[in-house]
Design a protein that fits this description.
By secondary structure, this protein is of the alpha/beta class. It has 11 helices and 8 strands. Strands 1-2-3-4-5-6-7-8 form an 8-stranded parallel β-barrel, surrounded by 9 helices. Strand 2, helix 3 and strand 3 form a beta-alpha-beta unit. It catalyses: D-glyceraldehyde + pyruvate = 2-dehydro-3-deoxy-L-galactonate. It comes from Rhizobium calliandrae.
């Protein structure tokens, strides 16, 4: 809340690599812990995790003491839901399963005040520090960051056109859903899925590209292909892996 400039948006505009972590545990404490780890951005997942407005708000508040941008993946592109997340101070949003230029334009419109869009006007909310940020409404668009997920074969074909829409800051591959849609469920390393991923993350149409890649070898390959917004793991994955490893050490010893 203190930094009125969106560092993720600005860094990606400069072509800098921004490394992130997925947050799926729905806990302000766990999000606060990883917020201090040095990641450039955190993704709070409100699509596949048990998060709601209040739990997202609590995590955003907890992460606010650290130098990382909080991105929230919301469940869909309903304008009322978008408005509510923006009003509670979430300026960086990720949208799942965007498949067309028309959807992309509707999402952008829902994040802009009239006459550029349809976002409802509220004089005082957390986004403008309860009315203390003068001129917020006039310049809100400048620091709003929108990442649209490409998760189907149809979306892959439309990716360049989606990327060209004014107001779209990044297109972000969802490798799990994409692999399922392309007939290789759970296997994003299948050759034809990798080709599809490459075709998206290598787009250079004035937009940044990104992907979730919890395996370091995959992350490095996608970075070589052009991805600049890369999530390299998740709080859930870190906990599961560390807990399983620790338990296994002592079980084998006994």
């Amino acid at each position: 809340m203190g930094n009125l400039v969106n560092p993720l948006k600005q860094a990606l505009k400069r072509g800098e690599l921004q490394v992130g972590l997925w947050c799926s545990l729905g806990s302000s404490i766990s999000t606060e812990v990883v917020a201090g780890s040095g990641f450039d951005w955190l993704l709070i997942d409100a699509e596949h995790s048990p998060n709601d407005f209040l739990s997202v708000l609590a995590q955003h508040q907890a992460a606010g003491a650290f130098d990382c941008e909080v991105v929230v993946r919301i469940p869909g592109n309903d304008p009322v839901t978008i408005k509510r997340y923006l009003d509670i101070g979430i300026r960086s949003l990720m949208f799942p399963n965007v498949q067309s230029v028309e959807e992309a334009r509707a999402i952008v419109s829902a994040t802009r005040y009239a006459p550029e869009g349809i976002r409802g006007f509220s004089v005082s909310q957390r986004a403008n520090q309860y009315g203390r940020v003068k001129g917020y409404h006039a310049r809100a668009t400048e620091e709003i960051f929108l990442a649209l997920q490409i998760e189907t074969g149809v979306a892959v074909k439309a990716a360049k056109d989606i990327a060209a829409i004014d107001g779209v800051d990044a297109i972000f591959v969802g490798p799990g859903d994409l692999s399922a849609d392309l007939g290789a469920m759970g296997n994003p390393l299948a050759g034809h899925v990798q080709e599809a991923i490459n075709s998206v993350v290598s787009i250079k149409e004035g937009v940044s590209t990104g992907i979730l890649a919890p395996r370091s070898d995959d992350a490095r390959r996608y970075i070589e292909w052009g991805a600049r917004m890369v999530a390299v793991g998740s709080d859930l994955g870190l906990l599961v892996n560390a807990a399983d490893s620790l338990a296994a050490q002592f079980k084998s010893a006994s």
